[in-house]
Amino acid sequence: MKIAIGSDHAGFRYKEAIKQYLISHGHDVIDKGTDSEASVDYPRFIRPVAEAVAAGAVDRGIVLGGSGNGEAIAANRVKGVRCALCWNEESARLGRQHNDANVISIGERMISEEMALKIVQIWLDTPFEGGRHLARIQQLDE
Ligand SMILES: O=C(CO)[C@H](O)[C@H](O)COP(=O)(O)O
């Protein structure tokens, strides 16, 4: 899968860990920054991830910050993006099953690195359920 990833300074360490995890599992990763733990403003690095997903340049996107809240808000401003803020296995699973989330947001200050990697794995492996959820996600873009 082709996956874009981006973070601010507060999500930088997990971005690097997730990038290595994805590459080691055969994915093609497009890193939109940031490149260090120096303080930056997250919209600058999150919006390019969301735009790449919306344009079909990549299959999925991952955004990270301290809480993941602002990053999810920024990603969801782009039409066609369904970004789920994930903090445990079930939030990641439901993000795919019910919401067909094409982007996830993770808060580095909220969860362990082990949990962050688990979330990514579940989000990649879980299919969209369709059915009653299809009409609902279609209404998001209407
Ligand atoms: O999670 C975030 C936005 O929702 C940011 O990562 C967080 O606000 C950065 O905070 P600071 O500038 O204090 O390091």
From TrEMBL:
Lineage, top ranks: Bacteria, Pseudomonadati, Bacteroidota, Cytophagia, Cytophagales
Top-rank lineage group of the source organism: Bacteria
Enzyme class name: isomerase
NCBIfam families reported for this sequence: PRK05571.1 (NF004051), RPI_actino (TIGR02133), rpiB (TIGR01120), rpiB_lacA_lacB (TIGR00689)
Pfam families associated with the record: LacAB_rpiB
Binding site for D-ribulose 5-phosphate: 8-9, 66-70, 99, 109, 132, 136
Family designation: Belongs to the LacAB/RpiB family.
GO MF term list: ribose-5-phosphate isomerase activity
SUPFAM superfamilies in alphabetical order: Ribose/Galactose isomerase RpiB/AlsB
GO process annotations (BP): D-allose catabolic process; pentose-phosphate shunt, non-oxidative branch
Keywords of the record: Isomerase
Catalytic reaction list: aldehydo-D-ribose 5-phosphate = D-ribulose 5-phosphate
This enzyme's EC code(s): 5.3.1.6
Pathway noted in the entry: Carbohydrate degradation; pentose phosphate pathway; D-ribose 5-phosphate from D-ribulose 5-phosphate (non-oxidative stage): step 1/1
Protein name: Ribose-5-phosphate isomerase B
Subunit structure: Homodimer.
TM region(s), chain numbering: none
